[in-house]
Amino acid sequence: MESTTQEPEMIMTAAGVPYKTHQAAMLSMRAKKLDNAAYHVVKLEEKQYVIAPKTEAEVAAAAPVAEAAPVAESTVVTEAPKEKYWLMKFNDRASKNETRDVELSVNTETLVFHRGREVVVPGRYRECADHTTQSIYEHFNDSLLTEENSGRKTVGQKQTYPYSVIRESSEEEFLAMKAKGDEELRSLKEQQG
Fold first, then answer.
1. Within a 13 Å sphere around the CA of 192, how many CA atoms are in the beta-carbon half?
2. Residue among 193, 44, 17 at smallest CA distance from 109
3. What is the average pLDDT across 91-95?
4. Phi first, then psi: what are they for 163, rounded to 5°?
5. Pick from 64, 87, 81: which is nearest to 22 by CA?
6. What is the DSSP string of 64-120?
7. Alpha-carbon distance 112 to 103, whole Å?
8. What three-state secondary structure class fits 121?
9. Could you give the CA distance from residue 83 to residue 88 in angstroms, rounded to a whole number?
């Protein structure tokens, strides 16, 4: 006789693939408002994590006990720190070659921010903006060209999306601004057909 037990449903990214970091899975749990008592992050293999419901035994084991045995320090898993939000202003375009808006993607989730306006940005997207850079080139004069130094040479890096931080913000302020932006986008799509 075959067993009819089902594996608990695992939660993955919107793209249907496992999360790349434990922290990304924890942030997703928080965003989905999943209870830590009922769900946990499970490591599948290196750089692959999913969110899964805890078994009845795990829930019972996590219940408070009158006098719990000391837990070895190496087995304690700390919860990821709460994400910060920032009220920021991305600089206007410096040239016509730059994008009109700032598009940042973190773990397959893309947010579009307006330049020149105050916007609330989650910490992970601010870090993404910090890591977006472009090369700065020096072009050689045709009279100076040789085989060794022809064309152009990289002389440095600059931030692709420079910004100014105005103050720390909150998740509620971000969600309100995102809802307003989503509504603007929806009405634009309806106008364009």
1. 6
2. 17
3. 89
4. -150, 170
5. 81
6. --SSPPPPPGGG--PPPPPPPEEEEEEPPPSSTTS-SEEEEEETTEEEEEEBTSEEE
7. 5
8. strand
9. 16
The answer to whether the beta carbons of residues 22 and 49 sit under 8 Å apart is yes
* Amino acid of residue 87: L
pTM: 0.53
Q: What residue segments make up the domains of the chain, in order of their start?
A: 1-81, 85-133+159-192
Burial environment of residue 35 by CB neighbours within 10 A (0 to 12, 13 to 18, 19 or more): exposed
On the question of pLDDT at 76 being above 80, the answer is no
Instruction: Please state the rounded mean pLDDT for residues 17-42.
Output: 82
Q: Are 27 and 124 in contact (CB under 8 A)?
A: yes
Q: Which residue would you say has higher pLDDT here, 6 or 80?
A: 80
What token pair was written down for 136?
Answer: 């700065």
Contact by Cβ (8 Å): 161, 129: yes
Q: Is 70 exceeded by the pLDDT of residue 8? A: no
Return the DSSP state at 55.
P
69 CB-side CA count, 13 A: 3
